[in-house]
DNA sequence: ACCACTGAAGCAAATATTTTGCGTTAAGAT
DNA sequence: ATCTTAACGCAAAATATTTGCTTCAGTGGT
């Protein structure tokens, strides 16, 4: 019984994943999402369709995967010196990214493309991680901090609800207002 | 220039819609949702696939349409005599329906299947209508009532977030607790 | 550095699906 | 009762998906 072979993460596999992701992102800028197809993406990526089908299963899961990359935080949350401003800044930035047509589509793709709970789970992990970083930092300063769940319930959830369900443009300062409601008057 | 012809709502069209919806609901109880296809649904409904494609566009939109029926309230919200209990009862009932695997799938279908904002919009209309009925009734009694948006932000949104993004089972009393946070201590 | 092992990609044939043109049926308006 | 045309059925054509088999190239062992 030989050694167990590892999953392949580098080299050609990595290049294919990169090429396919790039192809999706590029096509999404020049065509309507409704007429994206796997063969189209594969052609643009210089890959056979069957490769895409075997790795991602179907277009929905591929879109969810690409959407997740889009949601991955690019760095630790900004440090403005106090909890209220840190949370408000993070919320406003999140809204800025997610309330655009592109952002809304990203959110929908994440929700739509998870047979199991993988993509939504990873999405939660990203945002929870960012919020936790903010809370931990504030606790280190000696501030009173709310529970992570309270922030999810009363700041993130309302923003996500509006992004997913309501297409009206959002009032500026909405994120900051939610933080104000959570933390109470200054 | 002749009279504009109306959309057909009754007779054969209605029967086809009914048959197709029934077929989807039935198949969903005996097969995994991943291997539902339009031809399969059409066969069960006794209809040609092209009929389904022409009326609904694709499987996702059909599933969203069926999911919407599932979310349509079956009556006015229960009247327990005061705002707090009315909201709490409504929230708990909503959770009961939507936190099951079936309920989660329904929510996901509504979000996934809307190219425009039709299905999410209708979904909002249903829930907003129910909440508004509760608020209006309470106002008629002379109670202080929160704004509709406040209920959406701090009661419905957190519940929807958990249904869509977190697969853990929900703590009993979660809906009532959210209402408590919104309305303040009794 | 080379080799053996095998996961992942390519290719192409077999299936399944979606789209489309056209004839037919029946809902709704006059 | 009659007319108009939206919506359905059918079948052919176009696309997309699955699958068996072969080839290619990371990864770990020597």
UniProtKB/TrEMBL annotation, chains A, B:
Annotated ranges, domain HTH tetR-type:
14-74
The protein's name: TetR/AcrR family transcriptional regulator
One Pfam family per UniProt: TetR_C_11
Organism (species): Streptosporangium oxazolinicum
- Print the organism lineage: Bacteria, Bacillati, Actinomycetota, Actinomycetes, Streptosporangiales
Supply the InterPro entries for this chain.
Homeodomain-like_sf, HTH-type_TetR-like_transc_reg, HTH_TetR, Tet_transcr_reg_TetR-rel_C_sf, TetR_C
Query: What are the transmembrane regions?
Result: none
Q: Which UniProt keywords apply?
A: DNA-binding, Transcription, Transcription regulation
Q: From what superkingdom does this record's organism come?
A: Bacteria
Cytoplasm recorded as keyword: no
Transcription regulation is among the record's keywords:
yes
Task: State the DNA-binding region(s).
Answer: 37-56
Under Gene3D superfamilies, the record lists: Homeodomain-like, Tetracycline Repressor, domain 2
């Amino acid at each position: 019984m030989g050694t167990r072979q590892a999953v392949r993460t580098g080299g050609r596999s990595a290049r294919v994943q990169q090429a396919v992701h790039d192809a999706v992102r590029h096509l999404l800028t020049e065509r309507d999402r409704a007429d994206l197809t796997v063969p189209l993406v594969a052609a643009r990526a210089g890959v056979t369709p069957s490769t895409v089908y075997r790795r991602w299963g179907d277009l929905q899961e591929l879109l969810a995967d690409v959407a997740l990359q889009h949601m991955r935080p690019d760095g630790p949350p900004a440090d403005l010196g106090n909890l209220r401003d840190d949370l408000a800044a993070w919320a406003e930035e999140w809204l800025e990214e997610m309330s655009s047509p592109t952002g809304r589509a990203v959110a929908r793709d994440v929700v739509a493309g998870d047979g199991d709970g993988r993509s939504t789970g990873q999405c939660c992990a990203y945002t929870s991680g960012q919020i936790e970083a903010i809370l931990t930092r504030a606790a280190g300063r000696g501030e009173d901090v709310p529970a992570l769940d309270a922030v999810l319930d009363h700041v993130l959830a309302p923003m996500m609800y509006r992004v997913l369900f309501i297409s009206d443009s959002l009032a500026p300062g909405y994120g900051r207002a939610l933080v104000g409601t959570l933390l109470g008057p200054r």
